[in-house]
Amino acid sequence: MGLPELRLNAKLSEAATKKAQDMFSHNYWSHTSPEGATPWNFIVASGYQYTMAGENLAKNFSNSSGVVDAWMASPTHKDNIVKPAYRDIGFAIVNGTLDGEETTLVVQMFGASDTEEIAQKTIPLSTGITTEALGDQTPMMPVEFQAQEASKSLVQSLSSVIQTPKINIPTITRDTVFIFLGLLIGILALDGFVISRNKIVRVAGHNLAHIMFFVSLCVALMLVKRGVLL
Amino acid sequence: MKKKWISVTNFTILAIILISTVLLFLLVQDNKSLQVRIGILLSVLYVSWGIIHHSMIGSLHPKVVIEYLLVGAIAVTLIITVVWM
Fold first, then answer.
1. Contacts B8 to A, Cβ<8 Å
2. Is pTM, for the whole model, over 0.80?
């Protein structure tokens, strides 16, 4: 696209981490917290003096390419990613429990600053905020690995919001629905076979039609994505 | 013979309805609200298809109507559960 490379910025990553922490601790999914804290509050609190800033949020995607594809397919999120005015970028990918649901939050913050010193203080992607949650991590943007000084406090604060629920209710619910549908289709097939073999006449709907309907339903439900953007 | 022909035609129509709805579902993958609406539409179309089909082949009975309504209700419940989970 001919755009300048974004630099991974420690302060923006810290702001993104704090934002993720705040969403988990105050249990909300929004750009603005229930207390009125905006993304800009987190950016300023991290010490990044922005002249321009932006935020993309995503949750519950199973891999990083899904997040990037969804952002690029959304005009407003894509605008943030390809805006040439931004110079720096920060990420936080954090697991936790939101609204009783095991959630993987991805917070992406963009910024431009007049203070070059701040922009130079960058961290590598391998400091812990980017890897484990999405599994197949690859950098989402071309980033410049300049300073090797990883922010230990950032990683420590991140670990405090990682919670792994023993029971993953959404996954169990989804699995139960598919097991139920599988059982229903199996019973209908068996019933149809018995009826046909014994040439039983009865007042009932068509098993074949029900099976076709439930198979279609199964396919449709498999297409439901869990990932959400904001 | 006539009943068989009606059945073949009706099942072909049902297959077209189901495939079209699944494709529509695929098209609106990023819109959960639309997915629920399409799921409800799929169920309504299926119940309507069942009633029309059985009336055409002369086997429409209140029990059959209830059966199709229950199948439709199960489908709507499962769709809402998975989409809004």
1. none
2. no
